[in-house]
Amino acid sequence: MSGELIHQSRYLDGGDHKLHIRHIQHSDHPQGPAVLMVHGSIENGRIFYNDKGRGLGSYLARQGFNVYVLDLRGRGQSSPAIGRGDEHTQWHYLNEDLPHAMQWVGKQHQGKFSTVAHSWGGVLMMACLLRHPHLINQVERQVFFGSKRSIRVHNPERWFKVDLVWGLVSPLVAGFHGYLPAKKLGLGADNETFANWRDVTKWVRQRRWIDATDGFDYQAAAKTLRLPATWFITGQKDYSLGHVRDMRRFMAELGMADAPQALLGKQNGNLHDYDHINILTHAACQDDHFPKVSHWLKTGSDRLDSD
């Protein structure tokens, strides 16, 4: 491949804020199909790319896709950055940010696009589609990495990361600072508003998937809608934030228990036993599962030997 990756930053005006979208394409494939990528909690879009051409976003661009990586409100290069007193919640992501980004990507390509999400980004994507079903027809297919809505598994990693750090330490720190400075504390790649922490925590603990703002019943909505074809993937060593049992529980809530799924680990023929983060960042990814992700987005099949 003789050309090069081209990175451009686009900014969507949200009134009192701007959403950053990193557009990545390869100079040899300017007209390729579109993919919108959505990060999870205490993250930003950098989970999908870096300036050295690594990551799934960069890989997909080299495979011919037009890649659009969203930084949710206050994250990454979206502005203003999250700080003391900011109170935007999941409601803003579901009803403003994600619809805005999806409509914008759709206009750029005058047709359908696919989505890729990591962790809580997959929950946000599905919740957005359930609340705004007119957007479903815009989405060709989806791939979710380590996405779960609730956490029911119990093990030492869950007790430490979810119960202690997220459930007990984080609200104390957020209450003191007026937001969760996750990046400074080494808890994640980006910060979180205290209000959004409360929303995420409610969903993680709830048996029934109900919106904290207006009582919208996502499980009931899922029973009435046909959601886009989605491939659910998690790692063998993802013990708490995207455990395979919690991922499957999320699939069942969506009425997608029979959707394609993969557990990436050596016992299933992979090059590495992946965890919640290195499932997207490990050096082996581009020779291991990234080719299958690209093939799925192009064809709807997770088998490279399919016609």
TrEMBL record:
Extent of the signal sequence: none
Keyword terms, alphabetized: Hydrolase, Lipid degradation, Lipid metabolism
Alphabetized Gene3D superfamilies for the sequence: alpha/beta hydrolase
InterPro entries (UniProt xref): AB_hydrolase_1 (IPR000073), AB_hydrolase_fold (IPR029058)
GO molecular function annotation: hydrolase activity
Domain AB hydrolase-1 per the UniProt entry, residue ranges: 33-137
UniProt KW Hydrolase keyword: yes
Identification of the protein by name: Alpha/beta fold hydrolase
Source organism of this protein record: Bowmanella yangjiangensis
Native organism taxonomy: Bacteria, Pseudomonadati, Pseudomonadota, Gammaproteobacteria, Alteromonadales
